[in-house]
Amino acid sequence: FVHIMCPQLPSYLDSNRLQYIRSGGIVESIDDAFWAEPLNEGIARAFAQYFGQMNGHFGSATYYPWAEPRAESKKVLLRFHRFDVTDEEKVFVSASWVVREATKEAETGMFELSELTWDRKDPLSLVAAYNKALRLFAEEILKVPEFILAEPVFVLFPDNTSVPIPSLSKFPDPAIIPP
């Protein structure tokens, strides 16, 4: 099992408004665009869902603020140094991560992304860009060998037949809920 701890975000993201950084470092809010849930909760939920989807073990990841982790759970801490977009329509994510397990030394890493873009006239493009960034970040963490699970999960039917859970591409993006 994996538990996504409360993500640490830069203080300028404490607002429920969708924001971007103008040239000169000024934080600007997008008119009438709000997150549907606190950003740290949305990121933790999306990560837990991505982890479950990507490794084929749905329900194997819990997340802040719900579900206390089991003692044997891997605990994933995400620290975002940058999680923002600019008025030049660029998306920047800079984050570090730590995976702690009770019986092993912690795994750590960094994630940097600056290739994605968004459209200032379309707040949903900002949400889509953030979702893609979070998915890429989750994929990076899941490259750690401890996350590679050897056995696929199967759905068992009443007649005792079973089928493997379909590939990730057949499931919708869990996404941070758009405004």
* Gross geometry: elongated
Structural class: alpha/beta
Q: Note the gap between the termini.
A: 31 Å
Helix content: 10-25%
Order of helices and strands: EEEHEEEEHEE
Please tell me the overall pLDDT: 79
Q: Which residues form runs of ≥5 with pLDDT under 50?
A: 149-155, 165-175
| Strand content bin | 25-35%
Based on DSSP secondary structure assignment, what is the total number of beta strands? 9
Query: Mind describing the biggest β-sheet?
Result: 5 strands, mixed
Rounded to an integer in angstroms, the radius of gyration calculated over CA atoms is 17 Å
> Within the largest sheet, what's the order of strands?
4-1-5-6-7
How many alpha or pi helices? 2
Brief account:
The chain has 179 residues and is an alpha/beta fold. It is built from two helices and nine strands.
Describe this entry's structure for a reader.
The chain is 20% helix and 34% strand. The chain is α/β, with parallel strands linked by helices and 179 residues long. The strands form 3 sheets. It has a 5-stranded mixed β-sheet with strand order 4-1-5-6-7, covered by helices on one side. A hairpin with a 5-residue loop joins strand 8 and strand 9 (162-164). Helix 1 packs across helix 2 (123-141). Residues 149-155 and 165-175 have low confidence and may be disordered.
